[in-house]
Each structure stands twice: as C-alpha cells, then as structure tokens.
Write the structure tokens for this entry.
Amino acid sequence: MTVHVSERFLNLLRFQLAQFADRGDLSSLVVYVAQAGDSESPALIPVGQWPSHGAALAPIASGSPLLQPADDRRWLPLRHNQMLLGALQVQSQQWPWPEPLAQRLQAVALCLTEALLQDLERQRLEQQLLRQGEQLEVLVHQLRNPLTALRTFGQLLLRRLDDDSQNRPLVEGLLAEERQLNRYVDALSELGNPPPQALPEATPQPLLLPPHLNGPQGERLAERLEPLLSRAAATAALQQRIWTPPAALPSWRGDSGAVAEIIANLLENAFRYSGEGAPLGLHAQTAADGTLVLCVWDGGAEIDAAERERIFERGQRGARGQQVPGTGLGLALARELARELGGELKLVVPPAQVDPQLSGRGNAFCLTVPPAR
C-alpha cells in the first residue's frame, strides 16, 4: 500500500525528525499519513521515521490496538479541522514528557500538519489542471472540425464569385476571420504544452498573449490590420453607422500580433459602448522618430471625467457599460500589453484633440508604440 507525498514534504519531515538526535529519552519517532480505506476510519501509512533502521514499517489498520496509547507509546494527531491527515507516533520510556520536549513535539506536529495540508492541496490542483488540460485538448480538437468546414465552404463559394465584385469581399472577409479563429485555436492548444525556453534579453516578448498571438518580430502591422478594418466596415454597414478607416495603413513593423489584439479589443468596445448610430473610426499617424499612434475613436457620449482612469483598472466598467455584457478586463489588459510593448494606452476626450478633422465629441483610445527595433 502506497501513499503519495511529495519529495519536498519528505525532506521537511526528515529535517524535523533529525532535530531530536540530542534526546536520549526518545526511542523513536514515526510519521504516518492517513489513507482512506474500506472502513470509515482511515489507515495509517508510514512515510518517515527516526532513527532510520532501514527496515520498512508496516501500515496500521484502523482499529488496530497499536493506535491506543501505551506506557512507552503516545500519538500526536496531524489534524486540520475535522479531517485527520496523519499522526506522529512518539516512543519514549518517560511519561509525562518534560515540558520543553512536549513543546518541541507539538511544534513539529503543527509544522507537519501544515506541510501535509499544502502537499494535498498541491496534488488536488495538479489533478484539476490535468483534467482541465484533457478537456481543453478535446475541445480544441473538436473546434478545428467546423473551422475546417467553414474554410472549405468559403473557398468553394469564392470560386463561384469570380466576377462578383460586390459579394466577393464579403467571402474574403469570412475567410480572413476563419484564419484569425485558427490563430486563437493554435494559441489554446499551446496552453497545454511546456513553456518555451527563456528568450534572450535582447528580444523581450509581451507576457500577456499566448505565443501564437504575439510575434513574429518584424511582421508588417498592415497585414494584421486589414482583416480588422474589413470587419469594422461590415459591422458599421450592418448597424448603419459611419465608419472612417485610416487614410493609409502604417508601415510599422514589430510585434504586430500584439498591436492587432489591442486594436481589435478597442474596436469591439467602440461598437459596443459608443451608442446606437454614433460614428467611429481608426486614426493612424507616425511621428518623425517612427513612433506609431493608433486611435480608435467614436462620436458617442463622452465618458465621465471621474471614470476616465478607473475604466483601465481590472474589473471596472463605466456607468454606460453596466447594462452591456462584459467583464471589465479588456481595457486593463490592453493597457498592460501596450506597456509590455514599451508603449502606452490612454483616453483622449474629445477625438478632435488628436486631430482637428476627427469628431468634436466622443472618445478616442490612443495606443502609442515605439519605433520597431
């Protein structure tokens, strides 16, 4: 019969028991861990002893007379609330114990109880993570099937629209969204893999995105922005809003995946919170030193001055967002990711402060990222 305890716990156990080498009035110390059996009372499985004689100790079944105190044997339970985790058996020819020895033994019992409790909690969490990883693996596998079907149907439909200039961009947009969904699926599948080796300090990576969503370094941002702009234009047309794309796509290169994730979240927020019929757009400008500024703006009601910093905190949402489904994490994560990139994300009210040609009312969330290395 075996019981699973970590090597770390066993090392602590050996250290705790070895401190009694100066006590000639102790014959032996044995630490047992409780293990549930067929009966209501758990059996005790030995996991460590002092002094170590090399001989393996036998488990003690529930109801055994060895569990009763004797003239030379006493038990100190390792108990958390009403749960028995184990026991410390003390064999000594002297009873009652001297007060200093009794205090040391009680301290060791408390230390082992806490360590064993943490060890069991670690095992529970490891089992939970294992089950979640297995479920995630199944879900990712099954998710790939409908995505593959969508790509196939989209490609077949695209072949039939060779001369249909009006509807062809819609199908191309669907295929672009399918590719983005595949990036998310790849990122989910990577969550179950061991973490990659640390990268050299010269090429730091943002820590807030899975590996398939950031990088590669030096990628053209324009390629990541194009499907986002197509999505925004289609959403605006569906909602009968005015959508203003940037006059030109930036030539910036760098961790374009991370920048695109920030812009995608800002666009989603703009459509969700700016109010029905409010115009919106994306403004892009590049400074002389190569610094890139991307502003997602809307012409809706301005965010209250008291909320303009608070909405960047985790779990915080503005008054207008309380009736809209959400978690209050998007802006906080976007700002953290911007700072990981060496940039910043801030709110400018109204958008005309960014560029006089933009709306004189509403809000602009402006992402600033440094020049690509």
